[in-house]
Amino acid sequence: MSYPYQIKSYEAYKEAYKKSVEDPENFWADIANNFQWRKKWDKVLDWNFTEPKVEWFKGAKLNITENCIDRYLPEMADQPAIIWEPNNPEDRVRVVTYARLHKRVCQFAQVLKNLGVKKGDRVCIYMGMVPELAYAVLGCARIGAIHSVIFGGFSAQSIADRLEDAKAEYIVTCDGAYRGAKDIPLKSIIDDALIGNKVVKKVIVYTRTRTPVSMLKGRDVWWEDEMEHAEGQVEKNGTVSFPAEEMDAEDPLFILYTSGSTGKPKGVVHTCGGYMVWTNYTFVNTFQYQQGQKHFCTADIGWITGHSYILYGPLSAGATSVMFEGVPTWPDAGRFWEIVDKYKIDILYTAPTAIRSLMSYGLDPIKDKDLSSLKVLGTVGEPINEEAWHWYDENIGKKKCPIVDTWWQTETGGILITNLAGVTPAIPSWATLPLPGVQPVLVDDRGVEITEKNEEGLYKGNLCMKAPWPGILRTTYGDHERCRTNYFATYENLYFTGDGAMKDDEGFYRITGRVDDVLNVSGHRIGTAEVENAINMHASVVESAVVGYPHDIKGQGIYAYVIVSSFHGSEDETRKDILQTVSRIIGPIAKPDRIQFVNGLPKTRSGKIMRRILRKIAEGEIEKLGDTSTLLDPGVVDDIKKGKV
């Protein structure tokens, strides 16, 4: 199988990019013609960034699962769609062919139907990285239910907030999940999240860890029982079928919650048609995927990377996607390289945080692993530093594999800026060029395009987009005004990414990181306000302020300045209590790396906390604080400097 829209040369890239900007409707119509539509579109694109309103392939009818599974059954029924590597390397590997995937997705779609799920209903999925998670996601898509996957590291309170926002009536979970040496009691966390919940009707529980769980009569059902009952309903005369629901291209496919600059997580909504085309197009082109290759994306499906580049992107291209239940350092730091060797992986897509962590173990974990199958390496989640890039290039790619440094977000649906593997130039720690259809612009704080270079000879500013691409978010669930104010109101007629960037004369981009109150910790976005809200819930805390600082492994660490009314026991015990509070309210991923107790915070006379000053102190740039005379109490800064941890 070939991909007629795969870009094979730098010249072809330039040609495709030019057409995508000058004639986007015909450009995307040509690409969309490679998919299965039950009805073609009336209009390719209708948009304005003021409302905002974005509609792609308007009037088209489809079901994304037919494009991810059914269309490959005639020729590729026995080809692996998903290869599942369990947490424990001694456990049985599961190879899920396209035929098996079809059967299981149809079965689970029938389960959902039996339990009363209808098109448009929200289904919350909180599972470990098992194949059943893929069946659940695709089963929802098959019947037109909107899936909302929640990462297994979130706390009961975080889940409760997301359930309430989505008004989800159904939950799919596991008894527990394995993650390295840990067993995570998922069902029990769901039970805590459901205290006081009057909306959820059914909880489907898959058995993975045999952890004892509470099953409530009338609400909780076992996955295995429901699937067995559904099997006979979808399999007749040796053939399996569950008719896929006809969806409009602009019907919601899923909600994925992401942190923002306010305390409340926001539900980013992606729709069926544009998201499908975008994830497929970016997958095939960025990684230069060839039929039969094995693609290993190490992300969790609880994040957008897993949605787009474990499931929808690869499966819609008829690819083989490797899914891993565990962590890169268990049972030892050679686990990723063992998986590459075991399955002869062609494409490895992972996070700079993972690379930096594995670097710290030296080269021993790599020594006896055969990595010669690798053809393309990729990074995702945050800008990769040059040292990690060169280590990855030399020790994993053996200087023979192009590295794609991909920049994108939950809101973008898929990759926006990257080099194409072996096709367009790669520059260490630069994302380089926008994909066709992506129109970046750098602006100053007033929204005026940057036209003058800085002292380094580069254009530097806030990264925005001038026009929509098919995978752009459509709204934030239940609150379109929040979507407008977060992404489209900062600068007129532009989508604001929240990131800063630099550009050179060749049009290559280097992402410099967040310019708003959002941290990028290990590739996961965490809003400072969300962490502050959680810290402030602790009984002894009067006020707090959170900033990011450079972290050798995570890229960015969380530094919290905290005022307390009194210490419960010692400072250290209070610090541990605060960390536990954050863990309970958000989850372990949001725990501050450093907590400094202070007597006051640097505030202006109007009461605004000067985070710029706190950021500089956290970064160790104590001599570069600038003018502090406008502060209500400049003496506070000296006290904070003295107490830096």
Quick recap:
The protein is of the alpha/beta class and 645 residues long.
Keywords:
single chain, 645 residues, alpha/beta, Rossmann fold, Luciferase, domain 3, GMP Synthetase, Chain A, domain 3, seven-stranded mixed sheet, five-stranded parallel sheet, 19 helices, 32 strands, globular
- Roughly how many Å is the radius of gyration? 24 Å
CATH third-level topology of the domain at 92-245: Rossmann fold
Per DSSP, what share of the residues sits in E-state strands of 2 or more residues? 15-25%
The largest β sheet comes out as: 7 strands, mixed
Low-confidence stretches: none
Spatial strand order of the main sheet: 5-4-19-18-20-21-22
Helix content: 25-40%
Mass-distribution shape: globular
CATH class category label of the domain at 92-245 = Alpha Beta
Count of distinct strands: 32
